[in-house]
UniProtKB/TrEMBL annotation:
Designated name of the protein: Large ribosomal subunit protein bL17m
GO cellular component labels: mitochondrial large ribosomal subunit
Record Gene3D superfamilies: Ribosomal protein L17
Assigned protein family: Belongs to the bacterial ribosomal protein bL17 family.
Native source organism of the sequence: Pocillopora meandrina
PANTHER family hit by this protein: LARGE RIBOSOMAL SUBUNIT PROTEIN BL17M, RIBOSOMAL PROTEIN L17
Keywords, comma-separated and alphabetical: Ribonucleoprotein, Ribosomal protein
Gene Ontology terms for molecular function: structural constituent of ribosome
The keyword DNA damage is assigned to this record: no
């Protein structure tokens, strides 16, 4: 009985008997569909800009800069790679993962080495292997990529290959440190951070405020020197002005 009902439902005779005036054709719905596999890039949107290169250039020139926390993480990756390019004479880093001073993803690197070849009288996509370079060629390519990262600035490139190279000659990694600046939660301002090169001759950073109870708190104000005391006083003056502005805004909204 069950098999007969399934056969009738499959042929559509049962539906035709219910609605004889309409010709119904049973259609099997396609539940799964093929998702698009080709990546579509918007030609009107520039995916990478020279802003990260300008940050790297500023870090090499001044050895300490302040930027947002998100950019600080990216800057550390580029600065570490830049110093490694000046020290290494053989891979890593792999130069096929760098193009015009930008770090590529694995997919972009494969797409860059993708080509078509005739195999068994058919055109097929083939990923070319990375060409092996001699020591001199590798060092020259590293210098070119470092120059691209520094936007062709000769003074910064010379400092990289003289001062910084001598400083980090016996060091492998961890050339850059990040000091995050405390920021209260739900703050309208972005999270900021200091990025500096290890072993620089700059004066140490002042003691940063601590977030406690959603507000900034500065400890040991009496232990600061005169310059730092003025900084702390100005900071608290700014906090008082900020409270006054907030109260004025609230009073205007109530009116």
């Amino acid at each position: 009985m069950a098999s007969m009902l399934l056969r009738v439902a499959g042929e559509g005779t049962f539906l035709r008997s219910l609605v004889p005036c309409v010709n119904l054709i049973p259609v099997r719905f396609r539940v799964r569909r093929k998702m698009p596999s080709k990546i579509r890039n918007n030609p009107f949107v520039q995916r990478r800009t020279d802003f990260i290169k300008k940050l790297v250039l500023a870090l090499v020139q001044h050895e300490r800069i302040q930027t947002t926390d998100w950019k600080a993480q990216q800057l550390k990756k580029y600065a570490e790679l830049l110093v490694m390019l000046s020290l290494r004479r053989r891979p890593p880093p792999d130069l096929d993962m760098i193009e015009d001073g930008f770090v590529l993803t694995e997919e972009e690197s494969e797409q860059r080495r993708l080509t078509r070849r005739i195999i068994n009288r058919r055109s097929k996509k083939v990923i070319l292997p990375v060409p092996e370079l001699s020591e001199e060629e590798y060092v020259q390519r590293c210098k070119e990529e470092a120059s691209n990262m520094l936007l062709g600035n000769e003074e910064a490139l010379e400092k990289l290959y003289t001062t910084l190279k001598e400083r980090y000659q016996e060091r492998y990694g961890n050339f850059v440190t990040i000091q995050t600046i405390p920021n209260p939660p739900h703050s309208p301002y972005p999270n900021m951070a200091y990025v500096e090169l290890v072993g620089n001759s700059l004066p140490p950073l002042p003691r940063l405020p601590v977030v406690k109870g959603g507000n900034w708190v500065v400890y040991n104000r009496d232990d600061y020197e005169d310059d730092n005391k003025t900084v702390v006083k100005n900071f608290f003056k700014w906090m008082e002005r900020r409270k006054v502005i907030k109260e004025n805004v609230k009073s205007r909204k109530r009116q």
